[in-house]
Amino acid sequence: MSEVKAYGAADPKADLKQINIERREVTPRDVKIKITYCGVCHSDIHTVRNDWGGSKYPVVPGHEIIGKVLEVGSEVSDFKVGDTVGVGCMVDSCRECEPCKHDLEQFCEQGMVGTYNGKDKHLGGHTYGGYSEEIIVDKYYVLSVPENLDENAVAPLLCAGITTFSPLNHWKVGKGDKVGVIGLGGLGHMGIKFAHAMGAHVVMITTSPGKAEDAKRLGADEVLISKDEEAMKKHANSFDFLLNTVPVGHDINPYLSLLKIDATMCMVGAVEPLEPVHGGSLIMGRKNVAGSLIGGIKETQEMLDFCGEHNIVSDIEMIDINTINDAYDRVVNGDVKYRFVIDMESLRN
Amino acid sequence: MSEVKAYGAADPKADLKQINIERREVTPRDVKIKITYCGVCHSDIHTVRNDWGGSKYPVVPGHEIIGKVLEVGSEVSDFKVGDTVGVGCMVDSCRECEPCKHDLEQFCEQGMVGTYNGKDKHLGGHTYGGYSEEIIVDKYYVLSVPENLDENAVAPLLCAGITTFSPLNHWKVGKGDKVGVIGLGGLGHMGIKFAHAMGAHVVMITTSPGKAEDAKRLGADEVLISKDEEAMKKHANSFDFLLNTVPVGHDINPYLSLLKIDATMCMVGAVEPLEPVHGGSLIMGRKNVAGSLIGGIKETQEMLDFCGEHNIVSDIEMIDINTINDAYDRVVNGDVKYRFVIDMESLRN
C-alpha cells in the first residue's frame, strides 16, 4: 500500500478538502496511473451529498479519469509506461456472468465495482475515485486514449461520452435518421456531437430558447422548443430515436408523441420517478421507452476510437482542485459549458 | 340503404335496448354479412358509458363479429355467399399512408375507421358495430375464419386475440423464451394460449392466487403471485418478454424488475396514466416498456390461421342479446371466464 493525496468529503454536508488515501500495491494484472485530468460528473455531487442514499465516507469522487501509465504488472501487455490512458465509471466486475461475457459489465450480476464508493476487493472498504494523484486499476478496465485528441477534453468521454454514445450505437442511429436530443447539459452536448457524427439529422429539444445557438454550434440541424405546442405538433410522429438526457423526473408524454411508429425514447439522465406515463402514449404507435446505463468496456473503447476518428471531445472548462466546491454549486445551477475538468496538477502543487 | 335491427345506447347513462339502424347498399368492394355471433369487449362498455369521452350516440357496440356472407359486390373475389367470415375493430383506413402500406392500418395517418363510433365515409355520421343483424364491410377488412374452429368462440379473437397475438408475434416470442402474462382476463387468457402455442415457457403473473388452477389449464407452466415479494425476487431479471394486460393504471416498476437485460414489457390493457415509472427501473438493465394496439389486417388473418393450425379459440360464455346489460355489469366486476359472446339469433327472434 502507498499513501496518496486526494480530495474527499467526510460526510454529506462537508465540503471537499484534501485528505490522504491508500492505494494498493501493483498486482500482476494492474496498471498504475498518474492522474492528469479528472472530469466532474453530476453523479459525483449526488454521491458526495448522499442524494441517492448509501454513500460511504470519505467519498473521493471522480470517474472521468485521464492519466499516464506509471507502472504495469507482469501480466499487462497492452499498456506500457508513459501511455495516455483512461478509466471510467467501473474498475472491476466478475467477468464471468452472462452480462460480463456479453460485454455488458455495467450490468454484472455480482455488481460492477464503481470507480468510487464501490466495494474494494483488494483493500476492503470502498473504492476511491479520480480526485487523486494516482489510481491503480485492473488492466481490463483501462482504456486507450487516441493520440490526436486533447487529453483534458477526453476526460468527460469516460462517463458523459459513453452514456450517450452507447444508446445511439445500440439503437443503430445512422445516416437518414431523425434523432432528437432532449436536454442540453453535460450529456446532451455529447449526444448532439455523436448523433451528428453518426450522420443523423439532429434536433436539439429544449425548454430554453437561449440554448438554440449553442446547440447548432455543437452540430444540431434544428432546435425544437418543447414548450411551443405548435412546433411540437409539427414534429409529431417524426422521430426515429429520442435520447432523453433530462436529469430529473419529468413528463415524458409530450416527447412520446414525437416518436414514429415502433421508435424508441431512451432515458439516460433521470434516475428517479417520472411523472405518470399515459398507457395510450405507448399503445398508439407501438412506441417504446427504454433506459441505458453507461456502456461496457469494449463499447467504451469503441467510443473513444470513434472520437479519435471524428475528432470529438467534450466542451470543457478547466478548474483547479481547490475550486471544486464552487464548481459543484455551478453544476447544480446548470452554469457550465459543458463539463468541468480538474487539472490534477493542482493537487500536487 | 336498408334498415336493420340492432342494440344500442341512447346516452352514457342509458341501458342498451333494441333500436333500428341504417346500413348502406352493397358497393362493388363490399361484403354484406349476416352476423351470427358478436363478442363483448370491455371497450364496448367504455364507449357506451363514454368513459374515454367523445362517444357518439346512439352507440351500437361490437367489434368481435362473426357471420355468414349474404352478398358480395362485383369486385369481391375472395369471399362468396355462405362463407364464414370475421370483422374486427376496424372497417376502413386510407390504405395509402406509410403505416397502411406496411400493414399497420391500426395506425393509419388519416385515422382508422372503428367498427363502431368511427366516421362513416358512406352514410356520414358514425359507424354502427356488431350488436346488429347485419353489417356491410369493405372486402379489405373482412377476414376468413378457419373451418375447424367453433365460430362462436372465434369471435373474441377479432379483438382480444389479435391484441395479444400481435405483440407476442412482433417481439418474436418463441421456443425457449420465458414469457410472463400479467393479468388473467379476456386478454390475459388469450395471451397464455398464444405464448404456450408459440413454444414459450409461460408464467401467469397475477395478484389472485385463486386464478392459478385456471391459468395452468389454459397453458401456463407456472403461476407467479405478484404480491409475493420472495417469489418476485426469485424470478427477478429472468423474463424474455412480458405481456401486460392489466386494464387500469398501476405500478409497473415491480414487473420491470422481472425483465432480463434488453427485454421488453408490452402494455396492451391500460389506456390511462400509469403510476410513476422509476427511471432506474429502465436504466438498470437497458429495459424497455412498449405498447401495442390490436394489429393490422394481414396480421389478424395470420392470427386466425395460427388459431386454426393450433386449435385455439377463446373460452366463452354464450348470452342472448337481451341480457347484455347484466353481462356488462359482470364484465366490469371481472365475473366472466373469459369472454361473453352474444348469439345474434336472439336479436332476430
TrEMBL record, chains A, B:
Residues covered by the Enoyl reductase (ER) domain: 14-290
Pfam families: ADH_N, ADH_zinc_N
SMART domains for the chain: PKS_ER (SM00829)
Keywords carried by this UniProt record: Metal-binding, Oxidoreductase, Zinc
A GO molecular function held by the record: zinc ion binding
Cofactors (names): Zn(2+)
Domain of life assignment: Bacteria
InterPro entries for this protein: ADH-like_C (IPR013149), ADH-like_N (IPR013154), ADH_Zn_CS (IPR002328), CAD-like (IPR047109), D-isomer_DH_CS1 (IPR029752), ER (IPR020843), GroES-like_sf (IPR011032), NAD(P)-bd_dom_sf (IPR036291)
Gene3D superfamilies recorded: Medium-chain alcohol dehydrogenases, catalytic domain (3.90.180.10), NAD(P)-binding Rossmann-like Domain (3.40.50.720)
Family designation: Belongs to the zinc-containing alcohol dehydrogenase family.
Protein name as catalogued: Enoyl reductase (ER) domain-containing protein
